[in-house]
Description:
Layout: H1 3-21, H2 27-39, H3 43-46, H4 51-64, H5 66-71
Helix pairs in contact: 1-2
Amino acid sequence: MGPIARRNLLTTMKTIDEMLHLDLLTSDQHAQIGAWIAQAGSPDEILKMPATLWQALERASEVMGIDQDLARDPQFDEVDA
């Protein structure tokens, strides 16, 4: 696994950890999703995750507003020249 893939995996795992902490995923869902993502060799493999797990992720993502965050234009801080 290359450094970019490793960083993406860590970011994803942090997000599902936060979903667990906020009680948006059960500990069983968290474990199953984490195991699926960890064993997946590619994004295409992640997309083959069982529908029940995808539905749990979608509900948690909606509550956390993740889609809105991804759709928002990036905000850049002004830098003094």
